[in-house]
User: What shape does this take?
Amino acid sequence: MATNEIGEKIYYSDPLAKVTNVRITCNDISVPIGKIEKVHVSPRIEAYCFSVSIFIASLYSFLFYQTVPSSIRIVFAAVMASAAAASFAWVYQVCGNYIELELSIGKQRIAVLRSGMSKRSYVRRIAGLLEEAILDEKKYRKMKETGEIAESPALSLTETMRIKFILEDYASIKMKIREQYERKVKTQGAMA
Assistant: This one.
């Protein structure tokens, strides 16, 4: 485990997610470790099964093509083709956001990261390291309560600078993600 210039212990860091002993930052969301009660890795099985079922049903409807009156066969085929294309697009979208990393904060559940089926291990790795950071935070609090660690009453200049660096780091991550999103939107717009 490394530490950054402000003394945070870094458990994991990449352009999309960062887990430290102070916070987790994913996309535009930053959550303090001390507020997280539970970490959930939730596959969206129901949405996947339902979208695949609708896609199969839309393909199955083509079996009735011969039973439709010949005057509306072309319209029927066009409607069924567009329904099949729309349901396939839905399956593709669900597969792209199949697994979620959710955090329980009080009564709220916040989805901080969504990923495709092929990146399940990535999300699970981040969740494991996040749980490790939460355990370390609980140990720290327990040590603080028992008096093993003494806390200074006021913020020192070093601590103030740490907070400043944390905020600057968060702003730079947010800017990078926004730039990546804008590039993605531009490339998708150019492809269309």
Q: What stands out?
A: Residues 2-39+116-191 form one domain. The mean pLDDT is 83.
